[in-house]
Amino acid sequence: MKNRVFTAGLSCFLLVASHLTTQAQTPINPTQPWGSWFIGTVQLPGTPENKWGGFAEVQVRTNDIFRHYFYHELKAGLSYDVVKDFTATLAGGRYSTSDYKALKEGPLNREMRLWEQLVMNQYVGPVRFEHRYRVEQRWFSYRGDSTSFRNRLRYRLNAFLPLNAKTITAKTLFLSTYDEIFINPKGPVFERNRLYAGLGYQFNKHLTVQAGWVNQINYNLPTLKQGQFIPQITSAKNNIVLAVAYRLAHKSADHTQETLPSQQD
């Protein structure tokens, strides 16, 4: 147990140190209030006998903790287990952002998104690592009939540590932490960084819950407006995350098989 806690603590320390170093190099806007994210997911993992799987998810975010709703996501996708611990996914979603002070006026922006994804799992002693690579195509529709299109690349390193068992299966308490970078090919190259740390519990073969903290930093390019140079602006926001995942199972599935409890977004 001590070795597992030490390994998890070291991993968290390295991620946080890297994140804080990035923050220190860039001016940051005035501190924003803490927000909250609520995530509900239904998953169907693939098995060695039936490699096809999928998921559906709804996510709601608030500007303040448990109040001032302003954003939601609806997502779904299909996955295929190419080989053991290597999964390909094709998915899409609808994203809506509003002004929490004027919800009756409708969304400020609606986004339709399609993405292609590869996930590789790696096991180092008690720690489970997930490497996720994603390519996104994003279509925006802004209030006022303006539209735009962007591509984006994402990489996430997720680490899990079971605390009361050797694997993450039924009745397992676990730690989870990840850092994800978002890259815009047209700039700003580093568009966003997302750092997460949380505690989760898998009740049985179906139900898993997690509670944690996520810090999201957005970056904007330096610009020149009306003869004045505006330096790169960085906005950072902390959020409480509450996530519930319900896992379905193929009839032929081995219910003792470990499936990493990663979040879809």
Give a structural overview.
The protein is mostly beta strands and 265 residues long. The protein has a single domain (2-247), classed as Porin (Beta Barrel). It has one helix and 13 strands; from the N terminus they run H-E-E-E-E-E-E-E-E-E-E-E-E-E. The chain has one helix at 2-24; strands at residues 35-44, 52-64, 67-83, 86-97, 109-124, 127-142, 147-162, 172-183, 190-202, 207-220, 223-225, 228-230, 233-247. It has an eleven-stranded mixed β-barrel. A two-stranded antiparallel sheet has the order 11-12. It is globular, with a radius of gyration of 19 Å. The two termini are 30 Å apart.
Biggest pleated-sheet summary: 11 strands, mixed, barrel
Classified by CATH, the class is Mainly Beta
Shape summary: globular
Strand fraction: over 45%
The largest sheet has its strands arranged as 1-2-3-4-5-6-7-8-9-10-13
Protein name: DUF2490 domain-containing protein
Keywords: Signal
Organism: Hymenobacter gelipurpurascens
Signal peptide: 1-24
